[in-house]
Amino acid sequence: MDLPLPSVPTPPGLAAIYSTLRKAYPEQSNPLQVTALVKYWLGGPDPLDFISMFSNPGNPLHGIPPHWHYVSSGLSDLHGDGRIHEFRGAHGLSGYGFELTFRLKKEPGQMMPPSWPAELMQELAKYVFRTNNTLQIGDHVSWNIPLDRTHSRLQFHNSSNIRQILLAEDPQLTKTQSSLGTLNFVQIVGICDEELHAAQQWNGFSTLELLRRIPYAGGPWLITDMERMESIFELEPSLQEEVTRGLEREGSTLSGVNAKCYWEELKDRGSSNDTNYNNSSSIIQPPRMIDATRNQNFNKFSILPPIDASNMSRQHYKGEATMDRSSACSSATSEISRTRSCRGVCVRLNIEAASLLPLAFRGRLRHGGHFTFQSSNTDIAITLVSASVTGSIATKEHPYSACGNWLQLFVGDELIGKLEKDLDELAHPEEVSLPREYTWPEANLKIVVLPDEQP
Description:
Blueprint: H1 12-24, E1 32-35, E2 50-56, E3 67-73, E4 93-105, H2 116-131, E5 140-141, E6 164-169, E7 176-178, E8 181-191, H3 193-201, H4 204-212, H5 232-235, H6 238-250, E9 256-259, E10 261-265, E11 339-341, E12 345-350, H7 351-354, H8 357-364, E13 370-375, E14 381-385, E15 400-403, E16 406-410, H9 413-423, E17 436-440, E18 445-450
Parallel strand pairs: 4-8, 9-13, 12-18, 14-16
Antiparallel strand pairs: 1-2, 2-3, 3-4, 5-6, 6-8, 7-8, 10-12, 11-15, 13-14, 15-16, 17-18
Helix pairs in contact: 3-4, 8-9
């Protein structure tokens, strides 16, 4: 007589996720899964323990095509014993408070789900674990390569226009509560470059609504179609006018990005510590910048909000609905040793980050807001503030003030007009010859724009 094999109880957090999935897919109780061979808590490289894959028939009458539905397990607390996540109680967040999902349109005759979305989700999870930045609904990710061009497919040519990411609320999976806390399901939505620009210029939520209105571009469930070649603005040109009107009416909710950036103090008015920017010794040496196209790791995110400024602030750089205008550095103004005023500054940005400067002025500072560039891999940050921002250490009398490695740059009404005019060409970065230097001697300010691939 054979003895029954001992059963291994399902961890409580994982059981809660499975319960939610069974409600959505009652006929798929044993879905295909991608499993981390060596769990993260045992030293493995992949933070997600499991990625479940479901076949969703969709609802063509409602603009929802058949698709594959991928759901992660591992960003939330699966075990509750502290092996990965701190336990915060049943009413707190479970782990990071979310799991990732992805919906991929089925190709004709496709019987098995592709595995590359699982790699994509693992890469995003690595970013979260590395930086402690949570991914939230309405955020965008500048991925800059086709989403299916993952590590295992780099050798294949792929000309897909789906190269960027927006994050949305999963339309099918609801907020889940377990004994280990609560979690939401955040859906990855593949988009074109033009749609990313709209999210940056206006806001992610409104761009998602535009995508939902176009069945070919995602429809109500925001299903990614890697074969889509046209943006929503090519399909419906009038949508670009909506973005323009929305930006003029509301401004932009994008208030900060991760970037390749560096700043230094200018000692003498109108001069710089170095003038030959073709000399390798003058190109952003501290810190070393990572080239996204040559390093297939998680420094590929040259622009990725939200920014977790926990080393400077407990707030995320979010839209005005969730962002207090008071500066985190205002609480540290008594720390004289860390706070200083600079006579002048030289700011250096990669071209992708610099291309957002016209947006920062038009969509943020002109509306009384602020905009922050934070280094992707150091604690350096540069915040542009308008006169309406309270609590900043940068003022009209001391326009360039620093708190540690955090520079706050006050941009008054007179200077903002000059900056808008002189930097307007950066809105079309493909037309700018690099490196490019902009100088305002009367303000003792210099901005240097460098190629993205510059180390």
